[in-house]
Task: structure prediction
Amino acid sequence: MNRITLSTLKIILLVAIILSPIFVLAKSKAYMGVSCIDIQIDTVNRLRLKNSEGVLIVNVVDSSPADVSGLKIDDVIIQMDRTRIKTMDDFIKAAGSYKANKKAKISFIRKGETKIIPITFAERPKQIEPTDLSYDSAKENQINQLLDYVDKHNPSMGSLAISKEKDILFSRAIGYKQIGEATSLLADAETKYRVGSISKTFTSVMIHQLIEEGKLSSDTKLDSFFPAIPNSGKITIRMMLTHRSGIGSFTDAKDYLGWNLVARSQKEVIQKILDQKPVFKPGKKTAYSNSNYLLLGYIIEAIDKTAYSESLAKRITQKIGLSHTYYGGKIDVANNEALSYYNTGEWVLNPETDMSVPGGAGAIVSTASDLVLFIQALFKGELISAKSLEQMLKEKDGMSSGIFQLTIG
Result:
């Protein structure tokens, strides 16, 4: 098989991502060696936390300050010295204020108990230049061995796909689409999952298409569509795409868990956004908010004069031949859709969010194979122009427009 370069090999591991991005602390003055995410519904349930405050550690780099200090995956950081950590924004700011060789006391929750450990920050390691990736039968065997191991020990369920151009070279699922007391149904390579915030990438692409068509501009103000939203006269489409609007996230509402389980009208969801106070003045800061992309989804509907699902089909899925990607509804196992579970030592069924709630922020269903084809089409100019893609990838404070850069390895 021919060698595949980094630019042509696209790999996506589809896991349970529910309205949350993964960040790596890459721009701080000192090095800690952890990757964290905001606390989400499944994390609160899985770790039996009292609330969603703090940040969840999802990776600890070997021999890093965090590793030496004893921090572990699934620890929830809640304080650094005297700074309370409630969100990723708090964590990034707090960690970014330290320099190499400075010490800090880290407060965290592990298995329901609050612990405190000291940590000494280090110099950030030099970035290793990426090398070309290759794919052959030996690599495929290694991937299968890894998935066999994960599947055997049952800590995770999901799907992996690797493609070159429009050819799927590898596709495999592990785990189940439904777990029952008597019988369980295995997932397969065509099992469809709720892909959560990956939906935002689709929404961002459609917004950029509308900008190219002259039906919208990055400077269009939100008050053209939703004047009732606080500061809407100062909030631009660009601010919403890059989470700089200051609009509070409707998923932060205290009653969100439970409220999200039944069908909601656009009016009801807008009211839930209005119930959240602005978290900062537009354009002054960056903070991830699902409200931004929910509203962007509604704007697509308003301009196209059709449902988001129809815009998605016309503008993306039918255009590039994604046969397993669509706006979700109630999970239908008979249609090869996977139920969602979290692990507490055994798999527990997640409460099922009604898909009228997340909209353009998180309502899409897809497969790993469709997602790699979508990303390839995006970067090859089949959905938006090179100029629009450049704008989409433009980063500020770690945020781009519906897409994020991750440091891996």
In short: The longest helix spans residues 137-153. The radius of gyration is 21 Å. Confidence is low (pLDDT under 50) at residues 1-27.
